[in-house]
């Protein structure tokens, strides 16, 4: 039994690592094609982002692997496979609920991690990427990675979800995590600056968080930021030639407080 759990945890770690390498690699390649030379000056930073992200893959993989084993072997969790086990309208609704709950957890833990002591212990690693690249998607200190890794494995015990919808949630999580750090906007201007963009977080919104620290704490939605007055709108991407040279005015010491 113990061996099966360990194998499941290792397999899930490998899956998370490969998923990271493929998704970040793909969007980094797109970035390099669109903005030739932009990533050239960031080689050292990217290597650091890769190292922290692969460590995070293990931290994400272990609880996911244990829960996956329990789901298969012990009938744990409320993950279901029969499409008609719940009403059809539950399929999209469950995805929205997962994203909203994940977003809520992220917003409040993220705000906490911007208090000076917590910032130093847990969150400075993520903000050491200035500006971040697509490889920074999982660039977290292990303590921060733990706060992210527990969310879905806990939610599957509480909120019923079809296994395919769970796959969709994980895909959205991965793609948004990567693209929000890649330094350009993949969504059309009309969406980002339109009514949907007022509520949805894309790269321009998270870029401002990495520039100013004390605002735009959300993950998928701007709901909590709007409600708590921490939404400072959309950021401007630094021009290609200054990217990778660092921004001297937004150091964590001065800026790491809750906004
Ligand atoms: Zn970030
Ligand atoms: Zn932050």
Automatic annotation (TrEMBL):
Transmembrane spans: 6-30, 50-69, 89-108, 145-178
Species of the source: Sphingomonas edaphi
UniProt GO MF annotations: iron ion binding; oxidoreductase activity
Compartment list: Membrane
UniProt cross-references to PANTHER family, sorted A to Z: STEROL DESATURASE (PTHR11863)
Signal peptide per UniProt: none
Keyword vocabulary terms for this entry: Membrane, Transmembrane, Transmembrane helix
Protein name, UniProt field: Fatty acid hydroxylase family protein
Chief location category: membrane
Residues covered by the Fatty acid hydroxylase domain: 95-230
GO cellular component, one term: membrane
Annotated GO biological process: lipid biosynthetic process
Recorded coiled-coil stretches: none
